[in-house]
Structure formats: structure tokens, C-alpha cells
Amino acid sequence: MLHVAVHGVSGERLDLELQPESQVKAVKQHIELVWSVPARFQKLVRDVLVLSDTDLMGEHCTAKGTPFVLTMVLSLASAKEDLESGRASQQLRALDDLASLGPRGGAISVSLLCAHLGDASPDVRRAAQRAFSRTAGRGDECAVAAAVPGLAARSWRARLGSVLALEFVAVQRDAMVLEVLEGALEDDSCHVRRAAVQALASLAAPSDRVVCLLAARLEDTTCWVRAAAVKAVTAVAEWGDPHVVALLGARLAEDKDRETRRVAMQALAEVAMPGDQCTLALLARQLEDEGVVVRRSAVEAIAALAEPGDGHVAGLLSARLRDDSPKVRMAAAAGLQALTS
After folding, report:
1. What average pLDDT score do residues 278-307 get?
2. Where would I find the HEAT repeats (predicted)?
3. Using CA of residue 166, residue 172, residue 174, residue 180, what is the dihedral sign?
4. What gap in Å lies between CA 220 and CA 229, rounded to an integer?
5. Domain topology for 2-74
6. What distance in Å separates the CA atoms of residue 217 and residue 224, rounded to the nearest whole number?
7. At residue 300, does pLDDT exceed 80?
8. Chain centre to alpha carbon of residue 228
9. Where does the pLDDT of residue 63 fall: very low under 50, low under 70, confident under 90, or very high at 90 and above?
10. Sheet holding 68-74, edge to edge
11. In the chain, how long is the greatest CA-to-CA distance?
12. Is the separation of the CB atoms in 237 and 214 below 8 Å?
């Protein structure tokens, strides 16, 4: 029997008893079982010699009775090759292995995963997100440092992945992260801009400057960026802030996209003061919209902002009891009940 001592680069040690005719790949299998390092990521080194999987252990043991010492070195080259192959099956295999590797993958693993958090394939995106969640956590400074360079990538999907990664691992109010996210608000890709809006709202402390940065995206040329900006501004605003209410009211009055208007109505219901007549008037204009979702959202927002016993609001809601849509009628009935209870 051979006594094999495997040393990891982090200082850990694994002792094994193996037959001389055992192959090197058997050692890798033991390492994978104990240390959760996939065999494909292992390089076993004897002095300066990298052993092949099919080498026999006895071929390299020259002194009887002394431990056969190996060093396990991590190599993610095969994962990088699979992820860059463009073949979903290979990419998913690599991502599963990186998930098994977890934090041991370090900055290299984070960089590889960031590039696929925004992948075109939903399956690859989900696998990358799963692997990333097992590799890095909130406050991981190494992961933050590994994610930031991706914001300069030529591929918008790689830049998107870096923004998503930063939102996941950065701590709130990290000045460096907030600065790079601020730059991403001007990205050429609408997908990156939307992700930057959401990340900034999640990580920044509420302030007039943050509101101004996010408010600028209310004028974005892409509707889903504007909708994300509406939600983000609401998240960082103080209740009753007249400036924010005015911004949201303008978006509601001017935007041609129904989803953006719907989100703006929900936001106004959260931010505006109860009984705000100007806001109620803006909401009332949406009651005649052709979209059922818009009319229903208008009814719900009006009911949320109305003060108890408001006769004018009661009249608006009563008129919606004759709406063509049963969903709008149900919302109006619920609003009237809340108004009079």
C-alpha cells in the first residue's frame, strides 16, 4: 500500500492509502468526494511534474515507507473552454461543476460566471445564477473586484452580468460600486441600463442625488428602462416628497407605454399624500384608457389615495361599476367598500 498525502493550495491535507497500481484519477476522485473539487479542475503535481490521469501511482513512488506527497492545483481552463464553446450542453456542465466548486473557485470563477449571468439562454442564465450564489456572497470583496472589470467588456451581455453580480455581492453604500453603477446608467444597452437602475436603487442610500440619477432614466428611450426607473425612484424616495410626486405624475401624463403608466400609478399610490387632489386628477384621466390593466390600476390607485368619505372619488369609482371589464368592476367595488368602511 502507498500512503499518499495530498496538499491543497489553501493548506488543507488529505491522506489516502492506495494500491501501487491505482491510477492518478483515483486520487482525483477521492479529492472530489472529500473537498468537493470536481476532478476536471484538479492538477496533481509531484515536485514539478504534472501527473496524467492514467499514470500509475507506483510508477512515481521511489522511496518505500515514505509518504507520496502531491500538491493539488486548481485549474479552470476546461470550464472556460466549455463556457466559450457556445454549446448549451457544455456550458451547463461547466456551470454545474463551478457550482460544486463554490467559493474555492475564487476570482477566476466569479469572472467566468459574470459573463453568463446575462446569457441569451434562460437555462444557462439560471445555471450561472445558481453557481454564482454558491460561489460568492454579500460583502465578498474579491467577488466585487472580479466583477467590476466586466463592465468594460465589448459584449453587452457580459456587462449585464457584471451589473447583476455587483447587485448580488456588493454591500450597501459602497462608494466604488455606486460609482461604476452610475456609469452603467449611460450604457449603450437598454438591458444594462435597466439592471443598473435596479442595482443602484438596491444599493444606494436614499438621497437627492440618487433620486436625480434615477429620475434621468425616466426619460429613457426604452420603455422598460423607464418602468424600472419609476420603481427605483419610488424605492429611494421619502413618502410625500413633492419633487418625486411631480416626476411620477409627469411620467403618468406623458408616457405612451401602458406598462410604464401602470407602474407610475402604483408608485403614486405609495408616495403621494392621501387626498392629493392633483394626483387624483391625473389618475382619473387613466380611467378612460383602452387598456384594461391601466383602468384597473387607476381604480386601485385612486382608492388607495382617497380619504374616507370623499364623495368625488366615490363618484369616480361608482362609474367604473359599469366598466366593460369584470376585473375593473371588481376593483371599483372593492375600492368603494374600503372608502365607506
Report:
1. 96
2. 313-341
3. positive
4. 9
5. Ubiquitin-like (UB roll) (3.10.20)
6. 10
7. yes
8. 14
9. low
10. 13-18, 2-8, 68-74, 42-46, 49-50
11. 97
12. no
Residue 62's pLDDT is 63
Which range, of 5-9, 38-42, 284-288, 331-335, averages the lowest pLDDT? 5-9
Domain limits, the chain? 2-74, 76-203
Q: Is the pLDDT of residue 66 over 80?
A: no
pLDDT for the residue 283? 97
Full-model pTM: 0.84
Residue 242 has a CB neighbour count (10 Å cut-off) of 12
Q: How far is CA 157 from the centre of its chain?
A: 13
CATH number of 76-203: 1.25.10.10
Which set of grid coordinates corresponds to residue 340?
Answer: 365607506
> Mean pLDDT for the chain?
94
Confidence of residue 65 (pLDDT cuts 50, 70, 90): low
Cell 494500491 identifies what position? 19
pLDDT of residue 58: 84
- Using CA atoms, how far apart are residues 273 and 237, in angstroms rounded to an integer? 13
d(CA 319, CA 171): 49
